[in-house]
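Methods — Computational structure assignment.
A single polypeptide chain was analysed. Its primary sequence is given first, followed by the predicted tertiary structure written as structure tokens.
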Amino acid sequence: ASTNISLVNQPLRAIINGGSVRTAGEDSPLSIDACGSGDPDDAFSTITYDWTCAIEVPAVLPSADGSAAPPAPPAAACAVTPPPNTACNWLIPASTLSPNSYMFNVTVKKVGINEASSATARVTMESGIVPEVSIQELAFAKQNPNLKLVLEGSAFVPADGATAAITSGFTFEWQVEQGLDVRTGMPLNLSFANVSSTGNRRSTLVILPNVLTAGAQITLRLVATLEGRSGKAETIIVMNRGPYGGDLLLSGFTGTAAALTTDVVITAVNWNDDDTPLRYTFSYGPVGSTEAEAKS
């Protein structure tokens, strides 16, 4: 007996844990954690981390008279020193960053190999102390719509020297942007039982299979509130889609093929996908047969 095994390289992946958009309080330490980054095919490889931080530049709108908007000013660097490139976590002490929006970027590289990957997180610093909300990074960059989607969220209020950290007592709400229910074409309502088995008021969100649209990008936000103060985190979910655009051609004969005597060549042409290489499996069966009844 024999079998064919195809080994597909998985690229180096940069991850900033907690969500691509979050809030934090200026009176609390801020941790930007990229320790989940790495090469899925080589867990023991040596990784370096190049960190940058810039103050987010507000969008420049066109003038009232309809003329083109002036170019945006260059982003200003944060007044903080990044950690060495051996550090997968950037810990910024309390009261270091004033209220503003900051863009943190990490570029991870494998030592000795020309391969790199980057990730960015936007952190909005607010005055005082606010709940710090985190959404656990998913294991894969793309999610299959025919499987359930599970997102694990959490929140805490950091200790301030006089008060211990608070990890309970929060109210949670999951929100969605740019998400449609593939069955109805209507905006997703995470509180519906036929959309989510958990509803949208828990720290964990489970979206049922065959609800999200293949190929779509969906922004999910978790808001946690404690004693009137709220924090949030967002993550962008990329849904996988199957191969598209191709066709199946029959050749090798003219006229009508005769059963059991005519050689028929079946060719799959012009199939595309965001992920390569593609694998092809051919099958055949009588007209009206199901996929399970067809022969490979």
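Note: The longest strand covers residues 100-110.
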